[in-house]
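User:
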Amino acid sequence: MAIFTDKFEINLPKSINSELKFIEKGIISHQINKNVYFIFKDRALETQNIHEIKEISVEFDPILRDEFPSVRMIIRFFDNTAELFNTDHYFSIESAQELEHLYDLSSSKSINIVFNYDNTSVCSKYALNKQEIETINKTIAQINS
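Assistant: Predicted structure:
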């Protein structure tokens, strides 16, 4: 499990806010000031207390099919006792930028998740554990072979 390490409010660039207006729910990844952020938008967040999220788990599933070669990242959000909710994000293997974001996860050893709700963006940083980093590296090795 990745452990919560830091939380702060973040101002997203106008281009990201514009992109978020087109989705009702999901995650988009962007690099801001040399850091990759996974911006999560979901109306259900309005009923969740994001301050209760203490840990996340990150799992990876390479999907190496011709029609949509990608890597599925499953993020599960936990409080101190149970799973609160989960979501998926897909990295397109055909996109150099999205692959770079996957590689950055491996090298940074942490994940920045921005919860975007009610015109506010709060970034929570989680330290990835050794097993999660090894899983990311195995996934990268699979898609590079």
